Amino acid sequence: MSRSKAARPKIRMIDSEADTLTELTLQKQHEHARLYELLLGEIDRATICSAESMPANVVTMGSQVTFLDEKSGAERTVSIVYPGEADISGGRISIMTPIGAGLIGLSIGQSIQWPDRNGVEHKLTIIAVQQP
Hints:
Blueprint: H1 3-6, E1 12-14, H2 15-28, H3 33-45, E2 47-49, E3 64-69, E4 74-81, E5 92-94, H4 98-103, E6 111-115, E7 121-130
Parallel strand pairs: 1-2, 4-5
Antiparallel strand pairs: 3-4, 3-7, 6-7
């Protein structure tokens, strides 16, 4: 088991979102195989629950999340969206990006070691979550 996998915190996902993300990932896995492998791994290890029972402090699709990249010291606030809704200038990042895939399912205070597009690991820590 890799070091980063051992350091990954428990995460939660909404049942319908996990299903949609699995389908989307399987449809597009040929484009960026490593990212999709990571996202499918996150879905597999997540505790799946209904939207009604999901705590408000957990990053779900549509959430606005403020996180700290501890490697760079940068704090960012973004919304996690499906690919067709993504707009970097509007602060909406796709779940099918390394950051989107890394943040989904985390809750306030949790951190994860997660690779960027170049495979360099960053420690991402959730500071705040707002639901739509």
